[in-house]
Write a structure and sequence with these properties.
It contains ten helices and 14 strands. It has 403 residues and is α+β, with helices and mostly antiparallel strands. 40% of the residues lie in helices and 18% in strands. The two termini are 33 Å apart. The longest helix has 35 residues. It folds into two domains: 173 residues, no CATH class; 130 residues, no CATH class.
Length: 403
């Protein structure tokens, strides 16, 4: 059964000097409106315990345009400004629902420069896109075709730190489910091997950041020597940004190819619920963990499994996948990170740490999928230091199939 999904197609484009100037003004106005509306909402909440709605913020925007100080807001399209207020409203909804932190100001240097145009603010005719307040269409490099007959409903224009311009077109797309298969796979995330599969295959970590670390360090040293505010410093900053962009692009391309392969080859994919934010507190491994981008891989697996009719199972982060013997179910007392292979004291089976963990993850995920519930982790009692499960205190939770 085919699925109708909203899908964004991102392309690079090359604006004329007039278009670049217009978009830069729009980015600045979007940032100003967002920050000013956030300031008003913050003052009303903490000063008067009063909430300001999107409708009130929109009315305030109209009044701002009438003032002499902010009259320049009328020079750009009004749609991106309204969209900025809608994004702020969404940020507050997520905050009050405890799904996100309190909204922060948009920074000229740190925040992504972007503007969102809805259908009334652009023209799409015969494959050519013209934005409001512009006389000429954008010079877009169509690296891949849009779905046949698709027309964008929302257009987002952005500029990254390296000075590259991108346009993202949100379209309705029809996705056919992948052919059914009986294959299942468990993934154990790592650093030396980006992921280890329950089949025994190890996907080598490309370490994109390490490959360009020397170039990046040299460019950053050159940047530090330039006088602040000078043209040479801006050139050096762009050079650093281009290296970062190269690293990010290669990493994203690799993860897309890996996630697509895993989703197409397997009906069920099982992963661990890793708390990457806590793992980054390890100063010795933080750089390697960030370069691995496990969170990005999980995000790609989530939406691609939904697209292609696959099942993604996430098991509890405290499940002892590495210390659990996949042959007899015995849980090792200690297993330091530097131990990559270990022998079970109960059945004398030798395990590769990562492969054993991946197989245990798969077994736990299949059990959870079959019973429709999560996997209870084995936790140690604070008094005895032993498992809190009464039956077979050295074994994993009953009901997990053996491999």
């Amino acid at each position: 059964m085919t699925r109708q999904v909203k899908r964004a197609f991102k392309y690079r484009f090359y604006p004329t000097d007039e278009q670049a100037a217009e978009l830069s003004r729009t980015f600045g106005c979007v940032r100003l409106v967002y920050n000013k509306a956030l300031e008003e909402r913050t003052r009303a909440w903490y000063g008067e315990q009063r909430r300001i709605s999107y409708v009130q913020s929109s009315a305030a925007l109209t009044e701002w345009k009438k003032t002499e100080e902010l009259a320049f807001l009328t020079e750009v399209s009004s749609v991106p400004l309204q969209q900025a207020l809608r994004h702020l409203q969404t940020a507050f909804v997520n905050f009050f629902a405890r799904r996100a932190k309190y909204p922060r100001n948009k920074s000229r240097k740190k925040s992504r420069a972007s503007a969102e145009y809805t259908r009334s603010a652009f023209t799409w005719r015969e494959g050519r896109l013209t934005l409001a307040k512009m006389a000429q269409p954008l010079d877009i490099r169509w690296s891949r075709p849009l779905p046949e007959g698709a027309e964008p409903t929302t257009v987002t224009v952005s500029r990254d730190a390296a000075g590259r311009w991108f346009v993202s077109l949100l379209c309705e797309d029809t996705i056919a489910p992948a052919p059914a298969t009986v294959n299942t796979v468990g993934l154990d995330a790592g650093i030396t091997s980006l992921v280890t599969l329950s089949t025994g295959e190890k996907i080598t970590n490309p370490r994109h950041e390490r490959r360009d670390r020397a170039r990046l360090a040299r460019a950053q040293r050159e940047l530090s020597r330039k006088a602040k505010g000078s043209a040479n410093r801006e050139k050096a900053r762009r050079k650093v940004a281009r290296i970062h962009a190269r690293i990010a692009d290669r990493r994203r391309d690799f993860l897309h190819k890996l996630s697509t392969r895993l989703v197409h080859e397997n009906q069920v994919v099982v992963i661990e619920d890793l708390t990457v934010r806590n793992l980054l507190k390890n100063g010795r491994l933080a750089r390697a963990i960030s370069d691995a981008a496990w969170t990005d891989l999980r995000m790609m697996l989530e939406y691609k499994c939904a697209w292609y009719g696959r099942e993604l199972v996430v098991i509890d982060r405290f499940f002892p996948s590495s210390k659990l013997c996949g042959n007899c179910g015995t849980v090792a007392v200690k297993l330091p990170l530097n131990v990559r292979a270990w022998t079970c004291e109960h059945c004398d089976v030798v395990h590769d740490r990562d492969v054993n963990a991946a197989r245990n993850i798969l077994a736990a995920g299949l059990a959870a999928s079959a019973c429709g519930d999560g996997v209870r982790p084995q936790r140690e009692s604070s008094r005895t230091g032993r498992s809190s499960v009464k039956q077979e205190p050295q074994r994993a939770t009953a009901g997990i199939p053996r491999l």
